[in-house]
Amino acid sequence: MQAYIVAxxxxxxxxxxxxxxxxxxxxxAAQVLDxxxxxxxxxxxxxxxxxxxxxxxxxxxxxxxxxxAVLASKLPESVPATSIDRQCGSxxxxxxxxxxxxxxxxxxxxxAAGVESMTxxxxxxxxxxxxxxGLGSYMSPQVRARYPGVEFSQFMGAELIAKKYGLTKDALxxxxxxxxxxxxxxxxAGRFDAEVLPVAVRKQGEEVASGExxxxxxxxxxxxxxxxxxxxxxxxxxxxxxxxxxxxxxxGAAGVMVVSEKALxxxxxxxxxxxxxxxxxxxxxVVMLEAxxxxxxxxxxxxxxxxxxxxxxxxxxxxxxxxxxxxQATGADPARLNVNGGAIALGHPLGASGAKLMxxxxxxxxxxxxxxxxxTMCEGGGMAxxxxxxxxx
Length: 393
What we know:
- The protein is 35% helix and 18% strand.
- It is built from 13 helices and twelve strands.
- The strands form two sheets. Strands 1, 2, 3, 4, 5, 8, 9, 10, 11 and 12 form a ten-stranded mixed sheet that branches. The chain has a two-stranded antiparallel ribbon with strand order 6-7.
- Helix 10 (292-303) packs parallel to helix 11 (321-330).
- Residues 269-390 form the Thiolase C-terminal domain.
- InterPro entries: Thiolase, Thiolase-like, Thiolase_C, Thiolase_CS, Thiolase_N.
- It comes from Ramlibacter algicola.
């Protein structure tokens, strides 16, 4: 059986303490759920499940934020939901679980979504809460025995990748500038308009004039310059990474609707794309962020495709060394990678990023009349998901 994507939407991302900071994450995610139902015209009761990625599942994102988003939406109480944590790949995994449910024949309409308010539930909230309350560490005695003297760190993993692939600070800074320039060009040309769901501006602790909408990714630096980026302080003495060559902390939500062929016919839906391949791979948890490289190579081989067959790639810009190392290892065309910029310019709202990247990828394929698109992203713990879609024009 085949799985099809019939709708994909995302909010424009908000900066930390920015234009989305007043939204409760469940309510923000509910906006996306409602819009997916509205735009497809599907009966809300026909949704079999909602799978939602979220990394920091504590505080306002605790107690199954996916179910709370459903209860905040127009979906009926009969629609179940569950929250998924595969770190940065959480909502990409939600998409893959949704596709698997449809391909297995057990469900016909599944929404795969993601949400993260990094303003209201800061990164590392779960581990910090555990530390303050004496609840121990996720690093168990047996894990420590297997990796003696190691503290898993994405930042250190990014530095290790830069060293392994010979990536200089100049190369990282140049890539960061290109991310902003591509995002600026896309925003000014209106290439994000079809994928962005306008939502009301809500700043934490502020009253906002009625009718003001958030429609432009807040992290894009329209005046970015190489000189400005190069002048940002190194995050580690002797290292090559700065805050300018890393993804931005952000708030946001995104979602896609995945359906079966039966649902296409029943509800008269037009598919945007067909799921062509899905896989996930584990890799070295110390280097951690290199996993997209072997995962992509393996996925292309399994799908019977080459990098040259793919018309557009989305590789999450957690840190600039990740896409640059990926390009070097795969031989992919840089002109097809993150064509509208990436998380360095647009922000990385953790659990929402997987669905966000897929939303952008689908719209890029539609705009460019491309056939195949590939999405991958590095994930905490040393993992990577790969999803290949075939656009249907």
